[in-house]
Automatic annotation (TrEMBL):
Protein name: Gluconolactonase
Pfam families: SGL
UniProt entry tagged with the keyword Kinase: no
Transmembrane segments: none
Organism (species): Kushneria avicenniae
Amino acid sequence: MSRWLYHVSRSLCTGLLMAGMGAGSALASGGDAPAVVAETPGFNDLVDDNADIQQLFGGAKWSEGPLALPDGSVIWSDIKNNRVMVWREGEEVGEWLRPAQFHNGHALDHEGRVIAASHGKRAVERQNEDGQWEVLADLDGEQKLNSPNDLVVDARGRIWFTDPTFGIDEPEEGYGGRSVTGGEYVYRFDPESDELTRLSTPAVKTPNGLAFAPGENTLYIADSELGHDRENDSLNHHIVAYDVDEDGALANERIFAEVSPGVPDGIKVDEHGNVWSSSDSGLQVFNPDGERLGRIDLPERTANLAFAEHGGQHYLFVTATSSLYRIPVNVGEARSQRD
């Protein structure tokens, strides 16, 4: 059983009580303490059985899109409060951006600039050196995007992102609106040419998280279709894999793994090619063949995760409903050719 540490200031706890946001309202797995559960002998090579899981913050309404910055801080979205939060070691959690145009996922480009998937602007945007935000992509042809959700930057600097409708369907996650693109798609945007390409991913009905395998020859896409109607078990809740050629074309579509309970939301790949997926009960980890190696159970519905390294120690920063968690792990993130 993992040790369970609360790192929440007295002022934050008071704020939670005043806001009526007791932890019980956010729990997705019965309020149980976090636990590392090895389902195969090698899982504890990735994360120790007694990993020191810390809750760094617990005052959000829907935590998403964590990103480790070069200065050691971590930002993440509190979508329903329309803000981006920041954590720094030894400091109280604060607001990094507000209003945040209902940011969801974040990534860094090759210049170290933050790229964001904005529900509010229905766009992918970048924070430039002067601190201002610039829209990079918001139109598919002449049609407004839905609500970009998550993104990743490849070795050539291209931005791959997903565009489901959650941010226009959910009143608290954006400014509303209707879908005009004719579906929920995956896109690739090239900042050099300003070219936006809609990708063919027919097995993915509601794209969400996405991540590359080491070497970027495989792209994994989370399909969160079940998130539109959690009572309909016929809807997709799996991860789909694609081969990627040098030009970015996708081929060899295949179901990689099914995720349950709930849906795969954010996903990441480690340096050994293992896929780490969020779920309603915490994190689930699959080897490159799609076999589940183990899981990290958390007491809240889990949305996303980010790898980081501080002082020679690898960590996962995990966003789950109201919280940000930090988990020490024994493996780093998959690296592209530019790293």
